Amino acid sequence: MQEARRARLIDVARRAGVGKTTASDALSGTGRVSPATRAAVLAAAAELGYAVNTAARHLRGGSVGTIGIVLPEVVSRSAYYMAFTFGIVTSAAAHDIDVTIVSPSISAGRSRPIRADGLIIGDPLSGDPGLPGLLASGIPIVTQEHLPDDVSGTPDGVVWSSHHRAMLRLLEEIDITGARHPALLVAPEVTDWTRQLVAGYREGCATRGLNPLIAPVAFDAPWHAVRTSTERLLVEHPETDVIICAPDSSAIEVVSVLGSLGRVVGEDITVVSCVDHPSLPFLQPSVTSIDLRPRESGVACSELLLDLLDGRAKSGADVEFPIDVVARESTARRLRVGAA
User: Fold this and answer.
1) Sheet bearing 98-102, strands edge to edge
2) Domain residue ranges of the chain, discontinuous segments joined by +
3) What are phi and psi of 188, to 5 degrees?
4) Hey, which CATH number is domain 66-160+294-309, 1.10.150.120, 3.40.50.2300, 3.20.20.140, 3.30.750.24?
5) Cα 304 to Cα 143: distance, rounded to the nearest angstrom
6) What is the homologous superfamily of the domain 163-291+325-331 according to CATH?
7) What pLDDT score does 194 carry?
8) Could you tell me which residue, 204 or 132, shows the higher pLDDT?
9) Are 146 and 158 spatial neighbours (Cβ–Cβ below 8 Å)?
10) What is the pTM of this model?
C-alpha cells in the first residue's frame, strides 16, 4: 500500500482559504495576521496533521537560498570529495539553491554567522572543536556518516553507509587470492568511516585466523607520505601479501612502490582499495575496490537536507546509502605461494 502523502503548507493554505505566505506567517507567529485568520490556519493544520517544521520555517523566513558544505582539508586532492561536492551542487541547482563551501577553519572559531540555510558536513572528524558549535547553532545539519563518539550534539539527518560490511565483502574477494598476510593501510580512527573499516578488518581477520596488521597513515597524507608508509610496511613485514588501501587514491602510490621494489601485483602480492578511483580500472592489473558512489552520496545528502528544510522529512532522519565492492583483476586468481 502506498504511504499517504504528508500534508504540505500549500494544503493548509488551501484548506484555510488563504495564501501560502499568510499561512506561513500564521503558523510561525510572524507577519500581520488577524486572530481569526491565524485560528483558521491553525485549525486547518490540525485537521490535515500538518506539523510545523522549524527547518522549513528557517528556509522560508530569513533564507538566503544557499546551503553550505563543510569538508576536510584533504578535499583539494581527493577525487572522492570532488565528486561528492559535485553531487551536492548538481542536486541543489535542480532546486534553484546555491552552494557555498564553509572553510574548515571554522573549527578555530568564527565571529560572524554562517550565511547558509543548512549545512552538510562530510565525514565529521573526531576532536574537531568546531563541530559542537555547529550542532548547537540551530542551523539544520545533515552529516555524511555518523558523528564520532566524542562529539556531542545531534544532526538533523544522517546519510551513512556500512563500511564495516563492505570491508567484509572486500576480504571475501581477497580470499580468492589465497593471501594470508593482509595489511591495512589506514588513518587513525578519527571518523566513523575509518572506525568501521578497522572494525570490519579485525573481524574478518579473526574469522579467518589471520593476524591483523595496521599500517598507520595520516587521514590527509600526501602521496609521498603514503609511499613512505608503504616502504616501511614492506621492510618491517616482508611477508605481507596483500595491502588494503584505505585513503583515497593511495592504491595508486602503493602499486607504484611495489613496482619499484620488483614486486608483481597479482603474482606475489596484491592490492585492493577501500575507495574506488577513476584510474583503478586502468592499472595493470586493475584494482578491486569499494565503490562509495561519491556523486550519488552527495546527491543523497543534498536531497535529505532540502527535504528537512522544506518540511518533507523530520529531524532525526537516518538514511543508509548503499555501497558495494567492484571485483577486478587484482583479486581474480591465486597468488604464487612463497614468491615474495
Assistant:
1) 98-102, 66-70, 118-122, 141-144, 157-160, 317-320
2) 9-52, 66-160+294-309, 163-291+325-331
3) -55, 160
4) 3.40.50.2300
5) 10
6) Response regulator (3.40.50.2300)
7) 95
8) 204
9) yes
10) 0.79
- 168, 290 in Cβ contact below 8 A? no
H or E element: which one contains 326?
A: strand 324-326
Q: Which three cell numbers stand for residue 131?
A: 563541530
- The set of cell numbers assigned to 281 is 580500472
Assign residue 103 a region: left if phi > 0, alpha if psi is -120 to 50, beta otherwise?
beta
Write the CA distances from 222 to 86, 189, 261, 289, integer angstroms.
Answer: 22, 18, 20, 20
Please, are residues 241 and 181 in contact by the beta-carbon 8 Å criterion? yes
CB 108 within 8 A of CB 129: yes
Q: How far is residue 225 from each of residues 18, 186, 215, 222, measured CA to CA in Å? A: 63, 12, 12, 5
Q: How far apart are CA 238 and CA 233, in angstroms?
A: 8
The pLDDT tens digits for 61-97 are: 557 789 999 887 665 568 899 999 999 999 999 888 8
